[in-house]
Design goal:
By secondary structure, the chain is of the alpha/beta class. It is built from 16 helices and 18 strands. 48% of the residues are buried.
């Protein structure tokens, strides 16, 4: 008897897994500590793979786990082919990729192509070689302006919101080098063929080790105007954002990925929908993060507009939308939705902002069902399934350069990176046997996995149920249904309806045969309370 074969539609479904996937973001440093040194590691992730399998996610996206001085949380890479010793070894990463795949979970790695660490061999060689050397051509070295070269080569602003520091650093030999982020992250010159070759080799290196995809950090920033002109006002084209040269880079990457079945997701912050969609053409990136939905306030009309805009900008290129409420850079959903201003903006982050966590939790539960009901893929940042709030990290424990480069005015991003609570009765909530690299706030144990597993009404139980039920919604398009002001209601092709009530009064549910799931109890009359969502079988 011959070996069983998959039907063509099964093979297509497996190849297109990313179009409807639930992808869980792992910030390794804060996920789980396997060796008891206070820092999360690959051993900790491997030990918790059964938890992730039970959660039901399709893939894991790992924030950078490479060799790094950790001046920007690992986004300053010194060697892409070496795992940072704080996290483990390359052999452990290969085991993790294989063990996850055995559980039906794919792996996505993070590539940071705009810049390297100043400890990378290329940059160290460039410093040693001196002005005008071939080694410096891999980066953006320039003489300064002014009578003695004492002024930076141009007026470009830092990409860290709130930063007052320049993006140029001067060396003792008189040259300046460009770094859109920190001085420890020199920008690469993507007009140099060696830079392109090296990154294509890095992609092959990881695809050959079994990764299913690559997330591209700051994907719209790589290419620079070769003249490095001043920014001025309203430049067109922009000298370092969304330049047309980028598309040739990503086409070459796609040619590398396709033989492996590899998938790309880009971090593309762009206000122009047409420009955004160009990155998703069939021979470029597969998907890109949807930041309009992430930053949208908890308002029905604004959310519907964000959903419609997102679907419309993806439709011409046939790319699936991605939906995300939080990641390693932004305020946690429970906290953001519990504030007067429920939108997200880096510039608006401030210490001591009043927060109603009960309100935020109720809204975050409803938002979870909303995002998981939308057509496309969903990204879930670690700890969101536990309903973790944003922590306020004391100034003497902050590690995020955004805080320091704003001279302490911006809280930075450490508050959403605090290590996860696993066991309520254990020291450090079961994350480690030693004090974690970032302090866990008082009451963190109340969010612990072991406590939520026993509670059918917990945030964790809600996420598990929603991910398990999600296939019943089908993978077809969305159709809006008539609904009162403040209520979002839409049908999916699978015969299910999602209703989210953001109005101040209870909403009558449309006709249905069964309540599949709700983010909170219905009222005595069977109506949907304020800030509550429900999935219905028609």
């Amino acid at each position: 008897m011959g070996q069983p074969t998959h039907a063509p539609e099964d093979r297509d479904r497996d190849r297109d897994w990313w179009r409807t996937a639930v992808i869980y973001q792992v910030y390794v440093r804060s996920f789980a500590d396997g060796d008891g040194d206070g820092t999360g590691d690959l051993a900790g992730v491997r030990a918790r793979l059964p938890y992730l399998a039970e959660l039901g996610v399709d893939a894991l996206w790992f924030s950078p786990w490479y060799l790094s001085p950790m001046k920007d949380g690992g986004y300053d890479v010194a060697d892409y082919r070496v795992i940072d010793p704080a996290f483990g070894t390359l052999a452990e990463a290969e085991k993790l990729i294989a063990e996850a795949r055995e559980l039906g979970i794919r792996t996505i790695v993070d590539i940071v192509p705009n810049h390297l660490s100043d400890q990378h061999p290329w940059f160290r060689a460039a410093l040693a070689a001196g002005p005008g050397s071939p080694e410096r051509e891999l980066f953006h070295f320039r003489p300064g302006r002014g009578a003695r070269g004492e002024l930076p080569p141009n007026d470009w602003p830092s990409q860290f919101v709130g930063s007052t520091e320049p993006v140029w650093t001067r060396l003792p030999d008189g040259d300046w080098y460009l770094h859109l982020f920190t001085p420890q992250q020199p920008d690469l010159n993507w007009a140099h063929p060696a830079v392109r070759r090296e990154h294509e080799d890095i992609l092959r290196f990881w695809f050959e080790r079994g990764v299913a995809g690559v997330r591209i950090d700051s994907a719209a920033l790589l290419a620079k105007d070769p003249d490095l002109p001043d920014l001025g006002t309203d430049p067109d084209p922009h000298p370092f954002v969304d330049r047309d040269e980028l598309h040739g880079i990503y086409r070459s990457w796609r040619a590398v990925a396709d033989p492996y079945g590899g998938v790309f997701v880009g971090e593309v912050w762009l206000p122009d929908p047409e420009r955004f969609a160009r990155y998703l053409r069939p021979d470029e990136l597969h998907t890109a993060f949807n930041f309009s939905f992430l930053s949208c306030p908890w308002e029905a009309a604004r959310l519907r507009a964000a959903i419609d805009t997102t679907l419309a900008e993806h439709a011409p290129v046939g790319a699936p939308a991605t939906w995300v409420l939080c990641n390693h850079d932004v305020t946690r959903t429970v906290t953001r939705y519990g504030r007067e201003d429920t939108a997200f903006d880096f510039a608006a982050k401030a210490f001591g902002t009043p927060t109603d966590l009960a309100l935020g939790t109720r809204r975050a539960r409803a938002a979870a069902l909303l995002s998981l009901a939308l057509p496309g893929s969903v990204y879930l940042y670690q700890g969101e399934e536990l309903g973790l709030p944003e922590a306020e990290v004391p100034g003497d424990r902050v590690q995020d350069p955004m805080y320091f480069r704003s001279e302490g005015a911006a809280p930075g991003r450490d508050g959403c990176r605090v290590p996860l609570p696993w066991a309520g009765g254990m020291p450090y909530a079961g994350f480690s046997t030693q004090e974690p690299w970032l302090p866990q706030p008082a009451g963190w144990s109340s969010y612990a996995v072991d406590r939520q597993q026993q509670d059918p009404d917990s945030m964790l139980s809600l996420h598990r149920a929603a991910i398990a039920t999600r296939p019943l919604l089908g993978d077809g398009p969305l159709t809006w249904l008539p609904a009162p002001d403040g209520v979002l209601a839409f049908a999916r092709a699978g015969g299910a309806t999602c209703v989210v009530n953001l109005a101040s009064t209870p909403a009558v549910l449309p006709a249905h045969s069964r309540l599949l799931l709700s983010s909170g109890p219905l009222d005595e009359a069977g109506r949907l309370p304020q800030d509550t969502a429900a999935w219905l079988r028609v």
